[in-house]
Specification:
290 residues; alpha/beta; seven-stranded mixed β-sheet; two-stranded antiparallel sheet; 9 strands; 40% helix; elongated; binds S-adenosylmethionine
Length: 290
């Protein structure tokens, strides 16, 4: 099996020059050039020879080489057509990689799991394009596609939000949306110098482990997610005001006060201190009684 060789700035620059590649900011292109970080990602995802990996945005194939050296198979979805000849070149030594030229948001992940892994779960691993981190993460979880874990590089600020606890500044709608589906494990922090071009912000790798059995479930998930959005839309307002003003919901303040009382919560409470279980209790009471 070939050894990965792209975790090195000089080699990456040589490849980029050979193909006359110009970075496209609109695609969030910051390529990893640090072998410790690349190995750290593959280790954090605990990739082994049984795994079929879905990689989002292979770039010039740096992480792909490390994944292909450890996994049974790697499926990499890349939106930028200009990278395809480069990937052909950098991945020529691996025969277990399939490149799909598509937008990940328009890609049928269930179909990939069906074709490539007999419908069994994939591991998603990526250095994500930062301009669409949240839509990608939500797509991975919301559609119920077979995915066992998601190990991704994101902006440090996003990693903090995903791992946040109730009452902290970083706690928000995305925290709750992700923690409904998965446990969140911070892995490593990564400085701008590990990428070309260097991003303006610090980054971090996180691993999200999809629950086989969710610790908190809501019978009325649609209401749960609307309550979450409503209360963080107007963060400084009380939960009652945030939820009553949210246009996607049509409960009166009295309905919401009754649901809070039922969950043992004061009517002055703000959403930013409520746990996922408390949101779910309120959502289910509203779904059944109002
Ligand atoms: N994995 C490479 C690495 O670590 O060096 C590249 C990571 S770079 C941060 C993000 C990659 O995602 C780029 O190659 C970019 O072209 C690609 N990308 C951006 N938007 C995408 C989308 N909607 N679907 C698939 N790939 C996308």
């Amino acid at each position: 099996m070939a050894e990965p060789y792209l975790g090195n700035p000089l080699r990456c620059e040589t490849v980029l020059r050979k193909f006359g590649f110009s970075f496209r900011k609109k695609f969030g292109q910051n390529f990893l050039i640090d072998s410790d970080v690349l190995e750290g990602i593959v280790d954090a995802a605990a990739v082994d020879e049984e795994d079929v990996v879905l990689e989002i945005g292979p770039g010039i194939g740096s992480l792909t080489q490390y994944l292909a050296s450890r996994a049974r198979r790697v499926i990499s979805v890349e939106i930028d057509r200009a990278l395809l000849p480069i990937l052909d070149y950098t991945l020529a030594d691996w025969d277990n990689v399939r490149i799909i030229n598509n937008d990940i948001l328009k890609t049928d992940i269930r179909a990939i799991a069906g074709e490539e892994n007999g419908g069994r779960p994939l591991k998603v691993i990526a250095n994500l394009p930062y301009y669409i981190t949240t839509p990608i993460i939500m797509k991975l979880f919301e559609n119920g596609a077979p995915i066992s874990s998601v190990t991704v590089m994101v902006q440090k600020e996003v990693a903090d939000r995903l791992a946040a606890k109730p009452g902290s500044k970083a706690y928000g709608a995305i925290t709750l949306a992700v923690q409904y589906y998965a446990s969140v494990e911070p892995v490593i922090e990564v400085g701008p110098e590990s990428f070309i071009p260097a991003p303006k912000v610090s980054s971090a790798v996180i691993r999200l482990n999809r629950y086989e059995e969710k610790p908190v479930t809501a019978a009325h998930e649609d209401i749960l997610f609307k309550l979450i959005r409503g209360s963080f839309n107007q963060r400084r307002k009380t939960f009652v005001n945030g939820a009553a003003n949210f246009e996607g919901l049509s409960y009166t303040k009295d309905d919401i006060r009754a649901a809070l009382a039922h969950a043992g919560l004061p009517e002055s409470i703000r959403g930013e201190v409520m746990s996922l279980a408390e949101f779910a209790a309120v959502a289910d009471y509203l779904g059944e009684n109002s």
